[in-house]
Amino acid sequence: MQVVILPSSESIGDYAADVILRGVAERPSTGHMNTGHMNYVLGVATGSSPLPIYEALERRWVPELAAISAFALDEYVGLPYSHPESYHSVIDREVTTRLRLDPSKVHVPDGFADDPVAACLAYETAIQDAGGIDLQILGIGGSGHIGFNEPTSSFSSRTRIKTLTPETRRDNARFFSSPDEVPLHCMTQGLGTILDARKVLLVATGEKKAAAVARAVEGPLTSMCPGSALQLHPDATVLLDEAAAAELTLTDYYRFVFDNRPEWQR
C-alpha cells in the first residue's frame, strides 16, 4: 500500500478529489478494459472520514461528475430508507446531492428487502453489470473493519448479511438518539468485492484510528483485522492525517516515498 500522510482532513479531501477527477477525465478515452463500459464507477462510503472528499468534489465540481455511477459499501438491515441515518438517506445527502448525480445511477444495498439474501446477490450482480468499481473509497473502524466486514470476515467474501459487533454499534451510536437504536445487522460488500475494485483509497483521521491503521498497514495479514486485506490489493492508497499515522513505525519512509514520487505519479 502507498501511505500518504497529510496535514489535515481538508488536504486529504483535496488529494482524493484529484485522484477521482483524474480518473473521471480519463474514462472516456479508456473505457473498462474488458467490458466496454464507459461510465466511471465510484464506490462510496459513509461515516465522517470520507466527508472531506465529497466536500472537495462539490467545490471542484465539473460536468463530467454528473455522469458517473456510484455504489455504496453497505446499509443497515431493517432501517427504513427515510430514516435520516439509513445509508440511503446519508448517501443521498452527502453524495448524490453534493455531486449532482443522477439518482438512478446511485446504488445502495436494499436493507429493507423482503428477501435480504436475494438482495445481496442482486447487489453483487449490479456491480458486475456496471463493469466493476473503478475507485473504492473506504474508512476504517476501530476493530479494523472496512465496510461492515467485521473481524473474522473471509478475504474472499461477497456482498452479504453481517452481525455488527458491540464495538461497531457503540462507535455508530453517535449518529442515533440512543445506542439501542443502532441496528444489529447490516448488508455489506464483502472483502472479495472490495478487493476487485481497480483502485482503493482508504481515509483515516484522528488518534482513535491510529491503532487500526497500524494493524492494517504494517501488521500481519489476518481476518482479525479485515483492513489488512488491502495489503493484497495492487493499487491501494492510505490517506492519513498526523494523528491517524501516529502508531506507524515507517513514517519517515512513507514521507520519503511520497516526496520522491516519479513525475507520472504526481
For the structure shown, list the relevant keywords:
266 residues; alpha/beta; Rossmann fold; three-stranded antiparallel β-sheet
Describe the structure.
The protein has one domain: Rossmann fold (3-Layer(aba) Sandwich). Helix content is 33%, strand content 15%. It has eight helices and ten strands. The protein has helices at 9-30, 51-59, 87-99, 116-129, 166-172, 191-195, 210-218, 251-259; strands at residues 2-5, 41-44, 69-72, 74-76, 106-107, 135-138, 160-163, 185-188, 199-204, 236-240. α2 (51-59) links the parallel β2 and β3. The longest helix has 22 residues, at 9-30. The protein starts with a strand and ends in a 7-residue tail after the last helix. The mean pLDDT is 94.
The name CATH uses for the topology is Rossmann fold
Q: Could you tell me the mean pLDDT?
A: 94
Please state how the strands of the largest beta sheet are arranged side by side: 1-10-9-6-2-3-5
Indicate the radius of gyration in whole angstroms.
Answer: 17 Å
Considering DSSP H and I runs of 4 or more, what fraction of the residues is helical?
A: 25-40%
Please name the CATH architecture: 3-Layer(aba) Sandwich
Characterize the main sheet. 7 strands, parallel
Low-confidence residue ranges: none
